[in-house]
Amino acid sequence: MSKKYLPKSLFTRSLLILVVPTLLIQIVTAYIFFERHWDNVTRHMSGALAGDVAFLINQLKDVPSKQKPSVVGEFEMATGIDVSFENLESFNPKKSSDYFPEFQSLLRAKIKEKFTVQKTTDGEYIEVKIAFASQVLRIITSVKRLESRTTTIFITWTFGASLLFLMVAIIFLRNQIRPITRLAIAADNFGRGVDTPDFRPHGATEVRKAARAFIIMRERIRRQIRTRTDMLSGISHDLRTPLTRMKLQLAMLPEDISKRDDMQEVIAELNDDVAQMQNMIKEYLDFARDEGREETIKIQLDELLKDVVSDYERMQQPVVVTIKNKVEIELRVSSIRRMLHNLIDNALRYGKNCHVTLQVIGSYTEIWIDDEGAGIPEEKREEVFKPFKRLEPSRNSKTGGVGLGLTIARDVVMAHGGIIALEASPAGGLRVLIRLPI
Ligand SMILES: Nc1ncnc2c1ncn2[C@@H]1O[C@H](COP(=O)(O)OP(=O)(O)OP(=O)(O)O)[C@@H](O)[C@H]1O
Ligand SMILES: [Mg+2]
User: Fold this and answer.
1) pLDDT category, 393, cuts 50, 70, 90?
2) Closest residue by CA, ligand 1 atom 28
3) Whole-number average pLDDT of the chain
4) Beta bridge pairs of residue 322
């Protein structure tokens, strides 16, 4: 559940790991500062001002009215607080406000007289009016006496500093994460058969190590593919000569043997076998010639599909294509063509009426090849991908292929980083599903 809300990329995650603790520390410090230090400071300041005011009131109570101005004058000199007398009419106890509650409660504890506390309109001064004897004592002083200005400085500095920290962290993190992104792209490209020739190990030791391991692994896989293809095409090539010789020898059998009743059938079967073997070798060599050597290019897959299907339409074959989305994708074109031909040929040969569908689902392109034939039973669906595996062991070269079509199709799809699967088609026969990453 909480995973759903976590950011996905390494960059944002690492940034969070840095930012969240710093932010927490700041909140805690700010809290402590406000709760303790700031509170204390305000209390002290409020206490001091309340004390000053109470002191003045008490002094004024004790002196005859004649001397009051001089007491006030002394007080103003000593404290820097402005004091004046006003008529009682200017006192309106309802006008009191809840500014500086700390100060108000402290003052209330110190004097019995009623008072009001106001801020001047510019917010710079605080005005305290006290109903005293038959007069109103008006006291004006700067709010700085009650408010600690360090608060704003504190907040500006902490947040300014964190902003700076965040910027530095972003720059550093970017540089750390770039080599990982590059490695991910190279691995992804290799998976779908696209080359990344300029990939080099970069960055922190661990990332370099992973990159170096990837390069070695990639080389080994490439070498294995090359060895396999070279070896098999070598063998196939070498088999061609003896097979041609066998065919020739069969054709040149002396008449007294080839015309014999019991031999005719044997010779026909041998001829078929030789033809089939030649066919297999031709198919395989065709495939091996392209494999691993073809470069990928960006191409409109929908156009390619339409083009392949139009070949069948020209030959009056029952193939229809439905394009649900247009999609451009990096492909080895002749391999993909070969794969599509293999699968459509199968649909026409073992079923009837072939439907080809192309659509984009998320970050994948899906191609469906449906037919209306008998399909393949579920337990045989893995088996038919094996080389030279055929379900109907026909030796008739008209209906029978060599059993490489699906093997090659799977090879092609995998070399593009995709998957191929056989399913039951809603049309009745087999559905071949191909999913290629975009
Ligand atoms: N659309 C299909 N419907 C029913 N069976 C199928 C279908 N496609 C393939 N098969 C079965 O799977 C087997 C293997 O197919 P695959 O394409 O690999 O070889 P093939 O068609 O026999 O020969 P090739 O394609 O090499 O000429 C086929 O012999 C057939 O029995
Ligand atoms: Mg086939």
Assistant:
1) low
2) 390
3) 87
4) 357
Q: What is the DSSP string of 21-64?
A: HHHHHHHHHHHHIIIIIIHHHHHHHHHHHHHHHHHHHHHHHHS-
Taking the centre of ligand 1 as the mean of its atom positions, its distance from the CA of residue 97, in whole angstroms, is 92
Query: Do 289 and 323 lie in a common domain?
Result: no
Torsional class of 100: left (φ above 0), alpha (ψ -120 to 50), beta (otherwise): left
Ligand 1 touching residue 338 (CB < 6 A) = no
Ligand 2 centre distance from Cα of residue 392 (Å): 12
Range of the domain at 222: 190-293
Does 125 share its domain with 257? no
Instruction: Tell me the average pLDDT across 368-391.
Output: 91
351 lines ligand 1 (CB under 6 A): yes
Last residue of a domain, one of 236, 266, 293: 293
Q: Is the pLDDT of residue 148 over 80?
A: no
146 ligand 1 Cβ < 6 A = no
Say which ligand is closest to the CA of 347: 1
Domain count of the fold of the chain: 3
